[in-house]
Structure formats: C-alpha cells, structure tokens
Specification:
The structure is a homotrimer of 470-residue chains. By secondary structure, chain A is mostly helical. The first copy, chain A, has 21 helices and 9 strands. Chain A has 2 domains: 352 residues, Metal-dependent hydrolases (TIM Barrel), CATH 3.20.20.140; 94 residues, uronate isomerase, domain 2, chain A (Orthogonal Bundle).
Chain lengths: 470, 470, 470
C-alpha cells in the first residue's frame, strides 16, 4: 500500500489547462507557444521588498510555502485543522505542520492552489512524486535543503523566473528603505512599489489616528488639517514615484465615491479627526478620498486601482485571536453604477487618467463592469481577482466581459500574491487559460488566427505594460 | 402519421449526460462505471413515511406521477392548462388528466423533469416508446396495471432502487407513527425522519398559534413560556432522534440569524405569542430561532440545514384557490454574509457542529457560499437545489464552488423530492454530471485519474454519509 | 508589410458559431440547415419607418454604419476617440471618420459587433478583405458606391433579406405618417409599428409636460384629467393597431408595478401634472402605468413588453454635450419578484394576456425570470437583450432558463436594432447559437434529434409569430 501510494507521480502535462477538444487544443498550444517565453510583468502584488533588498535564503518549506498563504490554511481550517498546529499564532515544529498539510493535500483537488503548488514542487524543486502523507518528509527535506543553495535566494529566483518588473504594495507609512536598498545594491532586478493608502485613508483601519500622526512626522505636514493631510499624500506619492511606483491601490469595503464640496469635506474630516464619526461618516470619507486620489492621479500620472468588496475579518473570534489576513475575508455584493458615478462625473471622460476596477462579485462583470469599461475613457478592467484568480474564474471573466468591453479595455494579468515562488505558475495559468479562450473563438470562427496571436501577446504582456505605464 | 409518431422510441442512452468530446466522455464513463452501483444515500427529501409503513400499492399514473409533482403542473399551468383539468383542487378523470399531460410533454424538452420521467418510464415500467398524445393511453394503462403488482409496492421499489437510507422530513407536530410502524414491522429498509420545525418556529406560518398549543399538548411543556417552548423543541428532537433523525431543516425566507440577549428574546417571544408583531418581528424571531437550533445541535449532534430564499405562494389568487405548494414559489436574492454572522460569531468555529447551506440564488455560490464554506469549520455546502437540481445547475455549482471550497466542503447529493419513483434517476443524473465534471478536470490535467476516482465515490456516496452522520 | 496586411482575407466560415467538437458541430449544422432559409420575423426593433416609406438611398458608409450605432462609437470612445472626430455632434469628413473606425477595428475582436459587421461587409457589399487601416478607403468607396444602386435601397434590401414582418417602435406622439405612406404605396413589405409610450408615461422623460399637451392635441382628449389621459392612450393604441401594431413596449428604470386605488392614482396623477413630484412619485406613476397598460392589453390584445433596468445617460458630461443614446446607458441590478407582484396579482393568471419580460441583469435569469415564466400563464421571456445579444450571452440565456422555463415560455429572437443592414446577421447568429445549444443537448442524449428539429424551427420562427400574434 505504502509503496503503491508512493508511486503517484507528479508530472506537469504540457497541455494542462487547454480545452480538451483536440482541434481547439492544437490552436491553444500554438498560441501559447508564442507567449510562454515572454517575460513576466507583475504590476500588482504583495511580495516583500525586504527579500530582494537582503537576498537572504528563505527558511524552510512550512515557513516559505504554508504559513504565509491564507489560501492554504483557510482550507485546512475549514476541515477542522487548528491554526496553531500549523505554527500560525503559536510555536510549532515546522515539519509537523508540513506533515499535516501533506495529509490534507487532497482537500485542494480542483483548486488553483493545487495547480500553483504542483508547479512550484515540480519546476522549482524538481520533485517527481505527489505530495501526500507518505511523501511529507521527502518534500520537507528536499525543499528545505534546496532553500540553502544560492540558486534559491530571492534575487536568483527573480532572474530565473524571467521577471521584467515586479510591483510590491506599501503603506504611505512605509519608509521604502528596502526599495532604496535594492536600488543602491547595484542589482538590476526591477522591483517597484505601489501606493496603498488604506491605513491613513480608512478611519476604521486599526490605528488610524496614530497613523495620521506618523504620516505627519514622516512628511513634515500637519495631517490634522485638511490641507496638510492632502499635501502629505502628495508628498508620499512623489516619494513612491521615486521608488518606481506607477500606481496606487485602494482596498475599500465598497466602490463608493463621493464628490463633496470643500466645506462638506472639511467638516467630515473634522469629525473623523475628532474620532466622533459614524460608520456612515467613515464610508463617506473613504468615498471622498477616492475622488481626491483620482484628482492627484491626474496631476502625477499614477494609475489608480480599486479593489472593493471584501468583508474583512468576518470571523470575529479568529480575528480576536489571530488578527488580520487569516483567510476569513469574504466577498460581498458590490455596486459600481451608483458608487462610481460621483468620481466618473468629474473625471470619467479624462483620457490621461486610468482607473482599473476589480471585483469579487462576478455578477457585476457583464451587468456593470464591462458596460462601464466599454464606454468611459478612463476605465479599464482588472483581471479575475482573488477567489476568481483560477481557471474557471478567468474563463468566466473573459466570457462575460469580452463581448461588451473587448480585450483592449482589460489590463492583462495580476498575480496579486505574496507567494513569490508561485508567481510564474500563476502567470502561466493565466496565459494558458487566455490562449484556450482565444482558441475557442478561433475554432468557432469568431476570430482569425493571426488576430488571436496578437491578442494572446497583448493579454500576456503588452496590456499590463501599457495600462500600468511600465 | 399516427404510426409514424408512434414509432418514436424511448431509449436511455448509456452515455447520456456525459460531455460530448470523446476523450472526456471515455473518462467520464470510466469514473461512472465505478460509482453507478453504489447504494443510494438520500439524506434529505419529502417522501411519505406512510408509504413504507403501509406498503399499499400506488393508485394510478396520474395520482402517482403527475398530481403530486409541482415541477410538472407548474409548467402545464404556465402554458394555459387549468389545474382543475389535471384533477388538482377538483375531481377529474385521471386518464383525461394524463392525456393532457401527454399532449404537453414537449414542454419539458430540455428540463430535468423530462430526464427523470423518461428514466421512470423506461426503467421502472419498461416503456419503449416516447410519451406523447398518441401514447397517452398506452402509458396510463401500462403504469396503472403495473402498480398493482407486488413488485411495485413501496417497499419492493425501495429495495429494487438499492436505497441504503432514506430521510423524510416531518414537522415537530407529527407523531411519527408511520416511522414507528416501519420499525415495528420487521422490514429492514432504513427510513428515518428529519426535524423541520417551521410550523412552530415561523410566526407567519399558517396556524402558528394553534401549532404552539398542539406542541404543548404533545410534549407536556408550556410552549407559551420561552423556557417551555425551548424544552418542547428539545423533547421533540429527542423523539425524532429515536426515529433515526440525524438532521434538522429550516426553510426560511432569508438566511438571517440573530443572537439576541435573553431579555430581548423573551420580549420578542412575548410579542409573537400575543399575536402583536410586525413582519420585522417575525423575521427577527425566525433569525433568533436558527441560533437557538444551532445551540441545540451542539448538544444533541443533529446536523443543521438551512434552505433559505424562497418567496412562497407568490401567486395570490392561486394560493387563495389551491393553497401551498402549487408551483408558485419563486427564488429571491439571498444574502449570507451579514445574515449568518450572528450565528457564526457564536458557533462558526465549532468543529463538532455541522451547518449545511443551500441557496436558490446562484450568484452567492462563488461570491459568498464557497468562501464561507472554505473557511468556517462548521459549514458545508448543500448540492444545487430545486430549480438548480438539473444538469446545467449542477455544473454551475461545481464550476463556481470547487475552486474556493474544494470538493470536501460539499455534501454529495440530495434528491429533496416527494417523487419517490424518480429518486434513482435523480441520483443517477448527479453521478453522471459529477463524473463528467471530474472527467473535464482530468482531461485538462487539473486532476489525476486516481484522484478523480476517489472524488467520484466521495460525491456519490461517502460525503453524504459523513456530513449527515449516517 | 502593407501588402501583407492587405492580404488578410474576409471570409464567413459556414460553420461559424457552431460548437467546435466535430460530432456536436455536425448535429448543429444539420439543425441549422433546416432553419437558415426561414423568413425573418422581427417583432421588436428600432429601424426608421421613413426608410421604407421614402425608399431613398442611404448616404455613405459612415452615415449608415457608424454614426447611428452606439455599440460602435461607445467602444471607440472608451479608447480615447473623441465623438466629434466621428462626426457625432460635430461636422466631420465621413471618410476621415471611417478611417478612424477602420484603424480601431481590432477593438471589436471577440464582440458581436464584429460578427454583425463582417457579415454586412461580406454578404451585403461583397468585400473580400478585412477592415483595417489599409483597407479603410477601399471599404468607404465600395460601400458608398453600392448604396447608390437600386438594389441597396431600403425596400430592395428588405426583400433581399427575406423579412416577413418588421416592427418599428414609435411614441404615441408619432403620427405614423410613414407607416401610412408604406401602406398607401402599394409596396407589400410588412412593416408594422409598436406602441412605446415612455415619453408620455415617464414623468422624468425630457419634455413630459409638453408631451402630454401634444397627446391631448393629437387625440382630442384632455390629458390633464386622469380619465382623458387614459382615453388618449386607448385612442392611440387603436390607431397603432390600425398601423399593424401587435405589441407595446415599456423601457422603465425598474420592473416595478403598482396596483393603486383609483383615488390614490388620481392624487398621484395630480402631483405629476402639477410638476410637484418626487422621484419616488415618478417611479410610482410609471409602476402604476404598467398595470394600466396591462389592463388595456386585456381589452385590445396588444402583447406587452417590459425592457427594464437601464440606467440611462450615466455619463453626465456626455449627456450635457451630446444628449441621449450615446453609449452611456449602463445596466443595473433588477428585481422582478417584488416588482411585478402587483401586476401579476391582478392579471398573472390571465391566459389571453401576454407579458414578455427582458433583463439586463443576467443573475435574474435562473433565479427569478425562469421560475416566474415557468409558472404564470401570462408570462414569456424575451431573448438575451442588448449587451447580452451576443453568442456567449445567448448561450447563458438558454443554459440558465431552459431547465426551469423550457423552450416554449420563450419567444424566439428579437434583433432590437436600428442597424437595418445587420438584421439578417443578428438573426443568423441567434439561429446558429440556438442550433448549437440544441446540438449539445442531442449529443448528451438530453433531447432526441427529431425533437431538436422542431425546437430549432420554433426558436427561429414559430415562437416569435405566436408570442407576438403576428
């Protein structure tokens, strides 16, 4: 039995993720062959700049692959595995944590995590058998040993992965020392930052009031005046641009925007500063700040992204015990039509402004987002996001947005990940799925093959560079 | 003409419902071959325990197949057939009703009812021509004659259908005499009950106040006190467990839950008892009762099901003339994120509690339900329900839930039917569709074949037994 | 390079839009071959009766194909092309506008506009190379020249397109002179009108008060009394019927209906007339008027259509500069369950009344619309509409409505277009997609081939004639 189970091979099939019908598959393969070697453009993600600044080896399999990945431990948790057993929020033997993961690896059947991980196991670490209980130690030892070789250091992997540019995401309170260190190191990998001001824009963010004071300290502006607060944003955006930023990002509960008068805005800001505000005020302030940020983008050219609609920390007890980002963020129904109107009424027709929209509510793809992006000059659609960053999710994205918004109002792929080793796998999934979708259009004579080649390249590479001004 | 139309053969193709692409179809067939003979586990449904207690022959084709099946007569009604003509709410010649049905059988093209019925006609009754106007009498006579043979009595069919366990659904006011009679009869068929307390939980249910008094009488508890009311529920749940129940079921207009203080709850219950409540109060009471039921489930181990989001009796005139369950229940948009939070805040992290969620609002699959089930230890997803219990509905369910929740946070199939003869057909459809979905994953190299075999068996059999503790 | 690009051929593949799998494709082709020659029944659209009354040649390529088609210029606008450059809201050289269009033709890859246009280019004008920058002038010259030949006059095209009946849509304020002229001309093309009373029913429509006065003038009724207003509607409906109308159409922001008492209605109408109403009042009045229109339909037999859920003129600056219908209408989430209940409570069970429902919110297909249409005798489902009138949109429509509503509660295809030359292309797309869908059912043994033939014909021809009483 044991021998039998050990015999499960791990192989990445060259035709994986292509449609099964042989004629369509042949077209998909032909399209994919032309884009597979293109460099990776990663315009939005959550890797840690410190990795590339310090270039220190990653620790062990559990620390690198399991503990930071909420996609993984949320699934284990859903099936009764305590987070503490995985070393999350508690000390635990990393090998034991890895064994638990291995024994539950079947839970990931049919999920994108399985695809990404198998790629990492096979391509990065050369493993040739499937992860399961019996192979847990082999995996742990192989991976952990490899991580101490120079070829597995962050910069070496960055180069091996053929990454042309990689954007991280930082708070305005981040001093960007790691980004500065990368630039001063002489290493030529292009790692850039992006401006994510939620901690100083969202009055309900943990530590918001202290964050404002920190922002004052960092910029020399008095963030307790409306003018000083805006000036501080402008100052930090300039610093971020100097560290390569071409974009901002905004993770709000909704996509709501406002365009209040100066008097209303100052009064609102006053209530926020006084800590005397309702959740309605907080929403109003976030909404107004999106429009303020758009105004700044018109000035400094930073591309704006909105990632709305996640109910953060839905599990109250888990949040109390473990804090943010523990797999308990749940999507909510999200409106765009009313929500974006104030901002669009002001800036929607600007051709030099780019606003990239994301959603966790797929019912908005065909109903709201594609019609909006197929009309407003400033709008583009971000790729299928988070829970929808998956083969089926990407297919639904293309099937429901293309007919109204076309391909050229979309922006190529974002990996949006902190799981650095999985970045090539994620881009590869996107390229395969997009080529498969294009192949179906070709096979149904809805698109000519020469055009499909152009679009495949655009989706894999060109559109991301253009939309994010990279 | 008549001869020609009579020549339409009725044949169940062995490859029905498998994907058409030959490579995928071959994999689907291989997977299906391993699960087709597994016994039927039916953990939730609406058959009548009296059938198995009494084991009397069913009456005639119309009485057995048409009159109780609101899927059928709602479609006929939508095309102008009066219910009275079918013998619903009025006396009518069953043969005449059957003829009308036969003449309209084309209306069911492309619907699951057609699949289920054709299976019943061919497999149970051996019919070899299609149902249509010309064959109406042949059908009526063949079926009605067969029903008088011992092999077509309820228990014989139960055995012939290879049913391992069949759950019915009863109100707390049901004395469960039929279940008791089954047990005392010496027959070994496993028919169990489930606890569906809507008639004594929903203040807007017809006869609610009288129902409370009947519950008091049945339990000896004073249901006009909050303590007595809860004790009565506990008492009935214990009786239901003795008749095999492993689950409760709750058919509320929404998924709303509450976790009110004892004082608030008692005050609310007071208003309900006094008949002096708003529809808001009624909703609040149902919401609070879901949390109370969850608390009881933690004590007695009954698995909890919520079937929310049906607007019952939407057609006012039909309801006035014919009463409940006449095909006029319409799904509504259903929120889970805010709705379930009070219950989940209290019990969401309990590993010994199981709450199975259903929906009639498919937009919640990927946006809300899969993310919730892929995180909370107590949650599982029930299968595609009611209008979505269909080939396309099941495919959408798998495509939109698997990537986030995996397979193992789902619970296999429910037939949820009162159409006893169609139970094998319904499970067969589910098995075929699931095997087809798995075959697509295998053909696209997203899952290995040995794993697909394990998952196919889990979906067809194991998961239902585990989730429902059978 | 130039020569190479000029070499791109334009060819309409005979198998376009059929599923790629060869077995399914063969069935689709067989089904399609039986319906491709059926005449076009176009029961709802926006062509101009004046074209057929006057039978004057169309002007040039830009004027005919680009400037009236908001599908086209909205996409160009979304990518930064000013409307003025296309001659919209400004004078511009039509050839220059056409060149801009040609240079941006790649934006339409994957969209239905591309399919429709390529058909027009190839089939109507005999073009054999693809539209792109290099072929812009060839196209402009070829099309513009052809338009001066008698074979390209409106009536000749109508006959060439094999149109059996074509409905236009007019306001009650339209004198229908063009329709009268068509009838009096001796030409036998069947062009009929449809009653679209939004300008005199929606208090928020531009010019509503003046429109009422015009309606009074036209009918001799005093539209400033409730009785006179209703009588005026009845009078115009009678006139419309005389010009062939078999239907009414209602383009409201929501599907809301009301059934107010006479006293409430008159009071509401008084506030509306006084111009002293809230947006709530306006919505209430539109809602009440749907029920009034239904009542009139019961009397005069006009089939009623509701096209709800478009947020008109979302782009405030564009509306100020260019007015209505400039590609800035965006769909909104649309409820049907609560919204239609007042009307359905009154007329839902009438078998002689037909109400055809449309949606821009696809999440309502399976959740609300199919269940409603699969029950209420008066209801039918209109085809996939506007942004969803596309190959993928039509497939989603069939996949999500058929299992609950069947085929026979749908009404075949509407082209709903003012782009006259594209009408055959649009019907052809619908026929191909429906045959492809049916072929999948046949290939999966969910429907027999002889039945699929019947359904294919019904979807292509019979159902439209029956539902619209043509």
């Amino acid at each position: 039995m044991r021998r039998d189970r050990l015999a499960h091979k791990l192989e990445l099939h060259p035709d994986r993720l292509f449609p099964a019908e042989p004629g369509v598959r042949a077209i998909a393969r032909e399209l994919y062959d032309q884009v597979t070697a293109l460099p990776i453009v990663s315009p939005h993600g959550h890797t840690d700049a410190a990795w590339f600044a310090r270039n220190e080896p990653f620790g062990n399999a559990t620390e690198l692959l399991l503990q930071p990945d909420h996609y993984l431990f949320r699934m284990l948790y859903s099936q009764g595995v305590p987070l503490a057993a995985l070393g999350i929020g508690a000390a635990a033997d990393p090998r034991e944590g890895w064994r638990i993961f291995a024994e539950h690896y079947h839970l990931f059947r049919g999920t994108p995590s399985r695809l990404w991980l198998d790629w990492v196991f096979a391509e990065v670490f050369g493993l040739e058998v499937r992860l399961e209980g019996e192979t847990a130690d082999l995996y742990f030892d192989t991976i952990t040993a490899a991580l101490h070789h120079p070829g597995f250091q962050p910069r070496a992997l960055f180069e091996r992965f053929n990454i042309e540019v990689l954007a991280t995401t930082e708070s305005p309170l981040d001093t960007l020392d790691h980004h500065r260190a990368i630039r001063e190191s002489g290493w030529h990998g292009r790692v850039i930052t992006a401006y994510r001001p939620d901690p100083v824009v969202d009055p309900e963010f943990e530590g918001f009031q202290a964050n404002l004071d920190e922002l004052s300290g960092l910029t020399g502006e008095d963030c307790r005046t409306w003018g000083g607060y805006l000036a501080a944003h402008r100052a930090r955006r300039t610093v971020f641009k100097a560290m390569g930023a071409t974009s901002t990002d905004h993770g709000h509960p909704s996509a709501r925007t406002e365009d209040l008068s100066a008097r209303e805005t100052e009064a609102l800001f006053g209530r926020i500063l006084a800590g005397d505000f309702s959740s309605w005020d907080a929403e109003l302030f976030r909404a107004q700040m999106l429009t303020e940020m758009a105004a700044m983008s018109l000035d400094d050219g930073l591309v704006m992204q909105i990632h709305p609609g996640s109910f953060r920390n839905h599990n109250a007890r888990l949040f109390a015990a473990h804090g943010r980002d523990k797999g308990a963020d749940i999507p909510t129904r999200t409106d765009y039509i009313q929500a974006l109107k104030p901002l669009l009424d002001r800036f929607g027709n600007e051709r030099d402004f780019t606003l990239i929209l994301f959603t966790l509510d797929e019912s908005a793809y065909a109903r709201e987002l594609a019609p909006l992006a197929g009309h407003y000059p400033c709008l583009r659609l971000g790729p299928a996001w988070w829970f929808h960053d998956s083969p089926e999710g990407m297919r639904r994205f293309r099937r429901t947005t293309t007919e109204t918004a076309g391909f050229y109002n979309t922006v190529g792929f974002n990996d949006d990940t902190r799981a650095f080793l999985s970045i090539p796998a994620r881009h590869d999934v996107a390229r395969r799925i997009d080529c498969g979708f294009l192949a179906e259009l070709v096979a149904e004579h809805r698109l000519e093959l020469d055009e499909a080649h152009e679009v495949a390249r655009a989706l894999a590479y060109d559109l991301a560079k253009q939309a994010y001004r990279l």
